[in-house]
Amino acid sequence: MDLRTMRYMLAIAEHGHMTRAAGVLGVSQPALSAALARLEEELGAALFHRTGRGVEPTDAGRVFLEHAGNTLRAAELAAEAVRELVGLETGSIRVGAGATAAGYLLPEAIRAVQHEHPGLRFSIREAGSQAVAEGVISGELDLGIVTLPIEHPRGEDLMVVRTIPDELRLIVPPGHRLSGKKSFRWEDLQGEPVVAFEAGSAVRRRIDEAAAAHGVALRVVMELRSIESIVQMVRADIGVGFVSKHGLPEGAGLRPGGGAGGAIERELAVVRRRDRVPSHATAAFERALLASLPDASTRRKP
């Protein structure tokens, strides 16, 4: 018994005549009669009475037709659901990222995908790299953007799809003595109030390490997660701050200079589970994200 046979039986019941049903189905009348005979033999019951005017369902036939109709409707719904998913008409995409990526790297890709596939839904989790890596490994997230290196016991379960160079730059309040300059010396920050990312975050560790390498202990007066919040607090003259170049206008922000060493650089990475094939929705978003990333370089792990 298969779905085609069920469709045959429903057509016979609808038209009440073997020849008319065969014509609608596009099969020969002998082939339709043979299908009915095989099914009746399989079920051990007659499904239709043969009358002078055609056929009509027996009691067993009415029971069969009811269940056959339900089965065909369920099969059609299942097929439609798959077509919608494959056609990117529905589906969800779960992405984790830190403040820089969530605020400045993801929006363009999300906009592009939603324009092409408005039925897709996004769930964006803004969190530190450790939490994002954990979410991708556990399957709670489809994709993540983290700071390298990946510091997780199961980091090898992640595949680096693409790396993204980043640079952390100093921003200062309007009228500050460093305002208008292109560079700063680390000793300029000795004792200066600093609005910083929260302790323990990958970006905060990178900034603290750079300062410590030049003998400076930053005087942190406020800790925040959001780049925009740091920018607003700096504008309000709470202190100076470090943010990603991706969150600043082109060329804005101060870089270390005056013999203080090179830029404060870090490397971000788009990651996903190594052993999982992305869904159609996730794959579409990944393509859009990679196409939108600035200064991106490909680096795939074996």
Characterization of this structure:
This protein has 302 residues and is an alpha/beta fold. It has three domains: 3-86, Winged helix-like DNA-binding domain superfamily/Winged helix DNA-binding domain (Arc Repressor Mutant, subunit A, Orthogonal Bundle), CATH 1.10.10; 92-165 and 267-292, D-Maltodextrin-Binding Protein, domain 2, CATH 3.40.190; 166-266, D-Maltodextrin-Binding Protein, domain 2. 42% of the residues lie in helices and 23% in strands. It has nine helices and twelve strands. The chain has helices at 3-15, 18-25, 29-43, 59-86, 99-116, 129-138, 202-213, 227-235, 280-292, and strands spanning 48-51, 54-57, 92-97, 121-126, 143-147, 158-171, 183-184, 193-197, 219-224, 240-244, 255-256, 264-273. The strands form three sheets. An eight-stranded mixed sheet has the order 4-3-5-12-6-10-8-9, with helices on both faces. Helix 1 crosses helix 2, helix 2 (18-25) packs across helix 3 (29-43) and helix 5 crosses helix 9 (280-292). It is rod-shaped, with a radius of gyration of 32 Å. The model is unreliable at 296-302 (pLDDT under 50).
